[in-house]
Amino acid sequence: MKNPPTAQSRTLGLGKSMKMVAAGRVAVGSFCRHWDSLPSQSPSGEFAKYILVGKDPVSSTCAIFRLMPAGNVAIDLDDPDCERAITSLQFKQPQLQIARAYTCLPQQQGQHMDELRFLIRREQKGEVSNFLHRLPIGAEIEARGLHAEYIVPKDVKSVVFIAGGTGIAPALQVADILEGQADMHILWANRKREDCVGGHSDTKRISSGSWWSFSRTSPGADTKVANVQKSALVSVLEDLKDQATTPEAKRSQLLVDYYVDEEGALMKPQDVTKVIRSISTQENATVPGKKIVFVSGPEGFVNYWAGPKQWIGGREVQGPLKGVLSAMDLDDWEVVKL
Ligand SMILES: Cc1cc2nc3c(=O)[nH]c(=O)nc-3n(C[C@H](O)[C@H](O)[C@H](O)COP(=O)(O)OP(=O)(O)OC[C@H]3O[C@@H](n4cnc5c(N)ncnc54)[C@H](O)[C@@H]3O)c2cc1C
Questions:
Q1: Which end of the chain is least crowded, N or C, by CB within 10 Å?
Q2: Residues sharing a CB contact under 8 Å with residue 124, sequence separation 6 or more, in sequence order
Q3: Ligand 1 pocket check for 325: Cβ under 6 Å
Q4: Nearest CA to ligand 1 atom 20
Q5: Which residues does 301 contact at the CB level (< 8 Å), separation at least 6?
Q6: Span 311-328, pLDDT tens digits
Q7: Tell me, what's the pLDDT at 30?
């Protein structure tokens, strides 16, 4: 989750559930692209005006921003090319004339079809994130997009999603796109519990010597967090787990494990290995289909797990697989850095 090295940032896109939003509106600046086939320059997409209608705190540094179009000009969210895309928009900081990308959250039940939601962390000394967090309700925000970071292939059968902090936002989109049509296991690392209050892991980590074994836990098995009011994002994850529950399997195709640094539960390479191994030995092991490991989060997080992305000729590309994942036996798993 790294912005381009110039002030001219990219336009970004949305998940399938946002598709109907722009009906009857004048579309601006719609742009979708496929993985590693980026144009050398961002298109000059126009900014559309939105109103900040809500800012729901998630933690001391994070909030969910809720936006509605300010007038009859809105971002075109109805691009069929973005149907299976991980998407985001750019918000402008008008005084400095810079823009940053923010990943759209999937549409939730009861959400107005025109409303856009984003999880935004206030970065210490961050120009745009502080500007956004300082805005009062009713303030105008200029946004442009859509931009597709990655199109989720139709033939994907298994996903492991390694998310750090706000890197959970694209994971929510992928889960929303897959809707239980593929196995997905999210491993979400946070520095502090305040970012994922009420979240309990779906697979139990049982220490056996220096190794960990995994087994499914029953809901609410983690007594420490079972009775706590769930944070907004944990609730979204719970809803997505329900959505991914198929009647045939009678269980959710989506599993989530939480790792909280301040609780001494750091995500370790063996946690990832175990999840990959467990998916690889499941009943769908012989079914054809892609297996993808996504890594999403702050630059340092992505670098640690998969090595840095690269800028070549003004285009951001994946770069070679490095970091912790490069030392693992990933067999036929593809790694995608976001
Ligand atoms: C595709 C994509 C999707 C994204 N989605 C999200 C999302 O959903 N939610 C989200 O919160 N973020 C997301 N981001 C990150 C977001 O775009 C911004 O990068 C982030 O909000 C920080 O921007 P900023 O302008 O506030 O910080 P910047 O001003 O760019 O600063 C970034 C960091 O550098 C530090 N810094 C700045 N100047 C200096 C200096 N002189 N010396 C030392 N340190 C310095 C700041 O303290 C800050 O920590 C996404 C990024 C991309 C590319």
A1: N
A2: none
A3: no
A4: 129
A5: 164, 165, 167, 189, 295
A6: 999 999 999 999 999 999
A7: 38
276 lines ligand 1 (CB under 6 A): no
Question: What pLDDT does 227 receive?
Answer: 65
Q: 131 C-alpha vs ligand 1 centroid, how far in Å?
A: 12
pLDDT digit string, tens, across residues 139-166: 999 999 889 999 999 999 999 999 999 9
For 10-42, write each residue's pLDDT tens digit.
322 334 444 333 333 334 443 443 333 332 223
The full length of the chain comes to 338
65-91: buried (b, 16+ CB within 10 Å) or exposed (e) per residue?
bbbebeeebbbbbbbeebbbbbbbbbb
How do residues 182-229 score in pLDDT, each as one tens digit? Answer: 999 999 999 999 999 999 999 966 444 444 455 555 544 454 555 678
Has residue 103 got a pLDDT over 80?
yes
CB-ligand 1 contact for 146 (6 Å cutoff): no
Report the alpha-carbon distance of residue 9 to residue 308 in Å, rounded: 19
Q: What are the structural domains, with CATH classification, of the chain?
A: 16-151 (2.40.30.10), 156-337 (3.40.50.80)
Which residue's alpha carbon is nearest to atom 51 within ligand 1? 1
3-class SS of residue 108: coil
**Closest protein CA for atom 26 of ligand 1:** 126
> Would you give the distance in Å from CA 225 to the centre of its chain?
23
ipTM above 0.90, yes or no: yes
Name residues whose C-beta falls within 8 Å of residue 215's C-beta, 6 or more positions apart in sequence. 203, 204, 206
Tokens of 90: 């750019």
> Token pair of 63, please?
């909030």
Burial of 283 (0-12, 13-18, 19+ CB in 10 A): exposed
pLDDT tens figures, 104-113: 999 998 999 8
DSSP codes, 177-201: HHTTSSEEEEEEEESSGGGGTT---
Question: Chain-wide mean pLDDT for the chain?
Answer: 84
Asked whether 102 lines ligand 1 (CB < 6 A), one says yes
State whether the beta carbon of 150 lies less than 6 angstroms from ligand 1. Answer: no
